[in-house]
Amino acid sequence: MAQDKVSPMEGSWKIDKEFHIDEDMGFILPNPLEDLPDKYADWISIAKILPDLIENGTLRAQVEKLPQLSIDDLQGHKLQRLAHLVLGYITMAYVWYRGKEDVSKVLPSNIAVPYCKLSEKLGLPPILVYADCVLANWKKKDPNGPMIYENMDILFSLPGGDCSKGFFLVSLLVEMAAASAIKEIPIIFNAIQHQDQVTFKKALGEITSCLNKAHEVFQQVHKHVDPNLFFSVLRIYLSGWKGNSLLKDGLLYEGVWDTPRQFSGGSAAQSSIFQCFDVLLGIQQSTGEEYAAEFLQDMRTYMPPAHKAFLESLEKGPSVREFVLSNGDTSLKSVYDECVKALVSLRNYHLQVVTKYIVIPARQQNKDNQTSEDPSEAENRGTGGTNVMTFLKTVRNTTEKYLMKEG
Ligand code: HEM
Predict the structure, then answer these.
(1) Domains of the chain by start residue, with CATH
(2) If you measure from the C-alpha of residue 26 to the centroid of ligand 1, how many angstroms do you get, rounded to a whole number?
């Protein structure tokens, strides 16, 4: 990827090709493919009915029967992204199968070998990532219709009824709402270069509107995702094998590595759009006790390399915060603060959602089971492996500290 060739400083929207960013959809993969070449038909057929195969207890046997295919006939980015999504689904289902009681420590070579080769080609880890299950896992029912929940579907489902559809599509729509902010970035950088405060304020104001829109769209989560199904069924299939007591050493990718490897599970913490706002506003997440910055930095290795490169290139761009501070203009500070406030408010809302979807069901489960297990374990772990509430509050509080004026 020629990341360093074009910098956002140049201001023209040429950057989209280099960074695999779509002008309308941002980091979302536009119109993902739905079918692989015939040779890979068995992969697709398994992925299409994963929940049924888990339910009837035949998933693992079906996977073990698959021939080991070469990835040579997977040519082109979109086809490779589809194959990564499909193999990611099969891997999660194979490993977690029916939940905690029957976890596989080994991924058989017939899946592990092509999956790891493909992952290497795409620069992604061999585990289901946000770029698979959200960014590349959607279609419009009516291709000419709008990109709204009612006109959309996911390509592949996980156990838990419509829960995966709701979770992935709402995440996608939040991502989409925030995406139009990206095209304001070159405008902002140009405005800084030319000390053009009027254009700067207008563009930053547009970014605030996108954040507010994202906040509004986020509310659809309550309508489409059932908290109990999310917590007790879907979540395990998104979990990874890094810092996970169920797979302490990680997963052995048979035929690829001699020792188990650890990878974090799928999480919207792997979304590039929120990190993009932090970078743009000059918000540096803390490197203190909660390792928030380290975790978010690590999450970049789960993003498509072109998107990670975009974030790195933004970091080299002019500083929005410095521009606002050095001008000392109150109206400039207010526009900056409005944007930070919108991000804080989105993160506050996210905290409420996490309380409803993880913290409360976890408490309930511990009460019902009266297990001798450490009750904090289930409650506190995100699928990405973080100590959920502490991590998310740290990120929210740090964001808030960047407000220039009180309140
Ligand atoms: C039921 C809904 C959701 C739940 C339960 C949830 C849960 C979590 C958890 C547990 C984390 C901590 C990292 C980890 O260990 O995985 C996290 C982080 C994060 N989530 Fe969500 N999430 C939800 C929906 C969303 C949506 C729709 C978005 C936006 C697309 C989103 C964006 C983020 C971001 C950006 C982070 C990183 C922390 C930050 O930058 O503030 N989440 N989420």
Answers:
(1) 2-22+29-401 (1.20.58.480)
(2) 18
